[in-house]
Amino acid sequence: MAAIAAAVALANGMKTDFASGIKILIGPIFLKFKEKRPLLIEEVNNFATAVPKCSSLEEVKEEFVPLITNVAPGVKVGVIKFVEKTAQITYIDVMQRCMDDLMPAMVKAIDDKDGTVRETALHCMGILKGRLGEKSEKYIKDVNKQKMEKIDEAAKEIKPSKYDRPENWKPPPPKVVKKAAAVVEDDDALMSFDAKPKRAPPKGIGVKPKKKVPAGDEEMEDVAPPKPPARKPPALSSNKPKAAASSGKAPSAPQI
């Protein structure tokens, strides 16, 4: 237990720098799944959880795949649970490279004589099918209907995640949208080959200049000139002249 706990500490601390150590230790420590002591099994499970921090399924498949068909049922169950848990956090291209070695051993496990091994293997096979999709069907095409129902039910537990893309996948660069050139309405600007910015017209264009006033007449500039007297309108020709004033005597009567 102390040795396994030390291996767990090294794996959690060194991570990928401890990849070679994990590959050496994974076989002997996984064989301890056959033990019955709960504290020891707990330490082995802690080690299995630390393995993905240091290495991938592809790099250690030669160490754990033979243990799926081990004689001890406890070893089978423990290793299959390790595969199920690790497969959910493994990139899809790495999973596909492990199929040819992993899937035949899993097919044998779902037909194991031990009931616990069979049920654990069926659930793990469903997880693998959910990750691998149609590429896993050629390995389970001969599985009977009852077992396929359990596999399909477990496959529904898989949800989309970042591990559905390749390990070295990089997002495509953002598309650069080019802005359309501004429409030029000036005829002179259309005839020019050099796109120069428009300049503001010089000040004073369109403004009538003021007359210069002699130095002596500066005070009279603000004084308005006198207005000419208004003329009376001429008399109209249709008006008759007034009659001369009478002498006060009555006109004499004509003689007969």
Q: CATH superfamily membership of the domain at 65-169, which one?
A: Leucine-rich Repeat Variant
CATH fold annotation of the domain at 65-169: Leucine-rich Repeat Variant
Rounded Rg: 54 Å
Helix content: 40-55%
The major beta sheet can be summarized as: none
Distance between the termini: 183 Å
Kindly estimate the percentage of residues that lie in beta strands according to DSSP.
under 5%
Explain what this protein looks like in three dimensions:
The chain is mainly alpha-helical and 256 residues long. Among the domains are: 1-55, no CATH class; 65-169, Leucine-rich Repeat Variant. It contains 9 helices and no strands. The longest helix is centred in the middle third of the chain and has 18 residues, at 92-109. The protein is elongated and about 140 Å long. The model is unreliable at 243-250 (pLDDT under 50).
Write the layout of secondary structure elements.
Blueprint: H1 2-14, H2 19-30, H3 38-54, H4 57-64, H5 73-87, H6 92-109, H7 115-132, H8 145-155, H9 187-191
Top keywords for this entry?
256 residues, mainly alpha, Leucine-rich Repeat Variant, elongated
Provide a brief overview of the structure:
With 256 residues, the chain is mainly alpha-helical.
